[in-house]
Amino acid sequence: MADKHCLQDDKMTEECGIFGIYATRTGTEVSDLTYLGLHALQHRGQESAGICVNQQGKFKNHKDMGLVNNVFDKEILSKLVGEMAIGHVRYSTTGSSMSVNAQPLLINCIKGDLALAHNGNIVNNGELRDNLEAQGSIFHSTLDTEVLAHLVARSFKDDIIEAFVHSLQQLKGAFSIVALTRDKLVAARDPHGFRPLVLGKFKDNFIVASETCALDIIGAEFIREVNPGEMVIIDENGIEGFYYSENRPYRFCIFEFIYFARPDSVFGGQNVHLARREMGRQLARETDIDADLVIPVPSSGVSAALGYSEESGIPYENGILRNKYVGRTFIQPAQEIRDFNVRIKLNPIRDIISGKKLILIDDSIVRGTTGKQIIRMMKESGAKEVHMVVSSPPVIDSCYYGLDTSRRQELIAANNKVEEIREFIGADTLTYLSQEGLLNSIKAENYDFCTSCFSGESPLERGK
User: Distance from the CA of 160 to the CA of which of 25, 254, 363, 415 falls in 20 to 30 A?
Assistant: First the structure.
């Protein structure tokens, strides 16, 4: 097990966040509202950001690599004027990290202009791309989104909405999509509902977004979630929703509740922070550890650690400081600074942990390299014992639906027993939350979950 990955590499990472607005009032600053929505969704992608506006059928698109507040400023936003807008933040999964892969994607075809932004992964992307290239399509990016754009352009349906529906019906995988046509804002969710998508209303304006936190930041009212297999069309007549796909088993990604979503977001009536706190409570019920303090790995372990402390009666303490000002790149110093990639982001507080028996809580272990480095630093800082407790089951299989997990052979739990993982990371004990305990902790109404990363049982064919 090579100890070579940085902190970000040892977490699951979500691919994208999407946002859209349809303004019913002239003068609504749709680009400013989209900017704020993307800012709230920044946790879903930090590699690129983009906004496309539609002003009376004319599209203007601005996108670049970097964080939302680096890509946009007041001058740029003042030029993005229109009645509708969509926005996107991206973490690259399928497709490499480069400016050509930034979204939204804008296409011109005989059916009319179309702007697209997409969250997820199309598992039959390779097959569809090969077929399209054989028919003469030329691709300019490695995006799944561009496959959808070519399908729309080549559809035998003349109407762009009918062509969009026809194209969606050819996709297999996990996706939520927002799009602009000449006079409509369109949103769609995959038939299994893997990826989140919500509807809201701001004054008389309609909003679609990946999470409710993007509604909250602009003071929008939550209306409902877009249902699996549903397409929503917003235009001058209001909102129309219809199903473009037959009913399929609901398979919402469990990692939205474990890690991806912001703690203040809500799905199925369940607040994410409260679900994570209940995961911690359930962990305390499933374990019996003699310890002095409960300490989270910031910030992903905070909610579960609070719940564990409440249930167990063991005091909670912030024993690790997270440096929130670290960017995505930095100069690597001399190699003698051991664990530098972790130390630049996380630093144990010696006076709190020295001489203590600690329960260290995190949301998941993917490769195990970061946990190993954190535990080593805590013991070097004087911790008497470090008991690692994880608020999810072992991740034993790669995700094929748009999450950036490793190849299966790199997943530590796919190839090692719990005791072997404990030995590798250097913990005194290692405990995972049971899958039953995880599912019982989430009280989302009418939700069923995809747990294939824990079971290896895929709800879809893996595609090409």
Answer: 25
